[in-house]
Design goal:
54% helix, mainly alpha
């Protein structure tokens, strides 16, 4: 709500709720069509009111959006400051949301392939999607190694066999895509830097070493195993599944390919598209 400027504050959610609970009685609840310009009393100086939100509580309320509410959310996604090149904004503003919601693009990898051919999307948007998919492919191998190490620890032959098959497939795809090369780690981290996202130093070191080890034609598996084990244990010293082995067996542990909250974005876009095709 803060990102899309529905709630206009720099406070944390908890701080804002405490502030609003304390001062709400002094603020006038008005909608965007009312004439008050007094920011000290105007409700929407801090909270942007959705259409008809100041009316009486409607009977039979559901989560399905009205047309007005869908317009409101679409406008927020597309016009909030600094979000013009984001996936949701670009899909909605270029009338591509309905197409992107096809079941054929339900996973992020398939969506990224489709998005690469949509030239109406802004170049920064397409570049970020492509970079995200390349990073996902880069670290997918580490997630497979992590699961094989667990399989070895609990002597799960079924999971071990699955990991071996998945790893061979991953290596072939990563090689074909040219994922690992000098400077690749810098490329992966550049997107985070552009978004002012802080990356832990040990994560940076891990990515640099992961890239370095995988650049050779036949990486030493023992070195890759040791690198993944060190990173996993350093991240969660006593809680890592490589230290505290799982008691119950599962088909997979932790992450696989990265989704980047694409499923969440699909649900939000679908809520809009259901009543406002675009």
């Amino acid at each position: 709500m803060r990102v899309f400027e529905i709630v206009r504050t720099q406070r944390s959610l908890a701080e804002f709720c405490r502030y609003w609970r304390r001062d709400a009685d002094e603020r006038e609840a008005v909608n965007g069509e009312d004439g008050s310009d007094d920011d000290e009393q105007r409700f929407e100086s801090a909270v942007l009111s959705p259409p008809e939100s100041c009316d009486a509580w409607p009977p039979g309320l559901t989560l399905q959006l009205s047309v007005k509410e869908a317009h409101f959310l679409r406008e927020r996604f597309c016009s909030a400051r600094g979000l013009g090149d984001t996936v949701c904004a670009q899909l909605l503003s270029n009338e591509l949301a309905s197409s992107a919601l096809s079941k054929d693009y339900a996973d992020f990898a398939a969506f990224s392939t489709w998005a690469a051919g949509q030239l109406s999307l802004s170049k920064p948007c397409r570049d970020n999607i492509a970079a995200a998919q390349r990073f996902s492919l880069a670290v997918e191998g580490a997630h497979i190694v992590f699961n094989r190490l667990i399989a070895d620890g609990i002597d799960d032959n079924r999971l071990r066999a699955r990991c071996q098959e998945s790893y061979a497939d991953w290596q072939a795809r990563a090689t074909l895509a040219g994922i690992f090369h000098p400077g690749a780690a810098r490329e992966w981290l550049s997107v985070a830097e552009a978004g002012r996202t802080r990356v832990k130093e040990r994560t940076i070191v891990f990515l640099e070493n992961w890239n370095r080890l995988n650049q050779v034609e036949a990486p030493k598996q023992a070195d890759l195993d040791a690198l993944v084990r060190t990173q996993a244990v350093d991240n969660k010293p006593e809680r890592s599944l490589l230290i505290k082995l799982p008691r119950e067996r599962a088909d997979w542990y932790g992450m696989g390919t990265l989704d980047y909250r694409w499923q969440t974005a699909r649900r939000m876009l679908n809520d809009i598209v259901e009543v406002l095709p675009c």
